[in-house]
Amino acid sequence: MDSDESRSAIAYRQIAGYIDNVADGARLPPEADFAEMFGLSRASIREALARLRAEGIVRSRKGSGTFAIRTGAPEMVRLSAISSLRELAQWHEVRLALESEVAALSADRRTEDDLARLQAAQEALLASLLTGRGEREDVAFHAALAVCAHNPKLSDALGRLTSHIFSWGNLSAQRSVLTMAERRELIALEHGAIVAAVAARDGDRARAEMRRHLLAGRMRVLSDLQT
Amino acid sequence: MDSDESRSAIAYRQIAGYIDNVADGARLPPEADFAEMFGLSRASIREALARLRAEGIVRSRKGSGTFAIRTGAPEMVRLSAISSLRELAQWHEVRLALESEVAALSADRRTEDDLARLQAAQEALLASLLTGRGEREDVAFHAALAVCAHNPKLSDALGRLTSHIFSWGNLSAQRSVLTMAERRELIALEHGAIVAAVAARDGDRARAEMRRHLLAGRMRVLSDLQT
DNA sequence: CCGGCAAAGCTGTCTGACAACATAATTGTA
DNA sequence: TACAATTATGTTGTCAGACAGCTTTGCCGG
């Protein structure tokens, strides 16, 4: 029965079936024609097309028409489980690329409020390191920095990637060769340099400091794992 | 400028921002309220909600309401359709981050074979620019460079992202203010500098040249779109 | 041939309305 | 009072018609 299926779902199925039989980049019939074809209103057709657009299957151009897109994978990259040190290193390089750019953009675009939040996150991290491992606060610091970049796509990708990498780290190396005091001092130094660069609106220095911080962190993790 | 942003895109951005400040599973205001809040019609709100539904960010129940879904998606980032110049610029910044890191890593890790393939790709691009637009060869050049980085995660993400951005450009009107000869000269210069840096195994210079190349390309695209 | 100009076509958006469904409020009854 | 049935209200889904803004087409004069 079609009665349990919403009309826009019917339209989606029908149009998707139509697209399967056309060439890449082909122009689809106008919305009004689809409506008449399927015995539905234009609103239902548009609802279905909105979903197809969001999925990247079609693209509409005002005044011109709607066109089929039969190329490209829907998602960027699947974050499958990290199963080797080599994969961890590869993801870490992706993170390095994104995070250093975030640092540079943040230095350029931060508002005063952004900076205040960043400094607050830094202090919260230092405070938590006196008692605990401060992992949650570390993530919060990097998230606060990502907000300063004012680029949701970039910060979203970076956030997911970071949590993915951290979820691996949590499961393995729990012991560190560093004492908590040493760790605290290092983070205070490296994060502080980043914050200072962001405060000074020096994008290049922020990028460099972030690179230094992440590379140093990678070295620490690797030396942990080898002990 | 918001004028290049469609009304449904505005609604999408606003509602997405609203969702960022609510708890998981929270009920959203009715469509009519959103419409009044943003000064838009219910149709535009529904268009935005259709996209959010397709992206799995909200879920609507007939007669009940629309609810936020804030459970993290398994994939890294969904490459949803680019619907405004703002989003294009955001994705472009993500690309810049990945591509410049790829250039640096490529300079460090390239083998002699890698370099030969890169130079071959560059010559093929220059040759194709004498006759056609050379878009396929441009992509091939960047793909060849990505191979040199020897990081499949990074090159895979970059490849998908690049094709996604290009698919937008292909469909939009793509007249250029540059003549083919000018374009050829620019690409020869910029790509040549990258190749030289990779050949010299100078990672920092490769990164800088790639940044220059992409930023110059963005300027060209923007000036095209504004004419 | 072709360059400008009018016409038609298409998507994007608005308005108003009603149906279908879910939930809250009210009322009737033991 | 406690509880079940019924009504009222709120919300999404769908329909219909209209117009604005943009793109493409096609015509006409040169």
Structure description:
The structure is a homodimer of 227-residue chains. Chain A is mainly α. Chain A has two domains: 7-68, Winged helix-like DNA-binding domain superfamily/Winged helix DNA-binding domain (Arc Repressor Mutant, subunit A, Orthogonal Bundle), CATH 1.10.10; 85-226, Up-down Bundle (Four Helix Bundle (Hemerythrin (Met), subunit A)). Chain A has helices spanning 7-20, 31-38, 42-54, 85-109, 112-131, 135-148, 152-171, 180-199, 203-226, and strands spanning 58-61, 65-68. Chain A has a two-stranded antiparallel ribbon with strand order 1-2. Chain A starts with 6 loop residues before the first helix and ends with a helix. Residues 170-175 of chain A have low confidence and may be disordered. At the A-B interface, helix 3, helix 4 and helix 7 of A face helix 3, helix 4 and helix 7 of B. Chain B binds a DNA duplex (30 and 30 nucleotides) through helix 3. Chains A, B: It holds the Pfam family GntR.
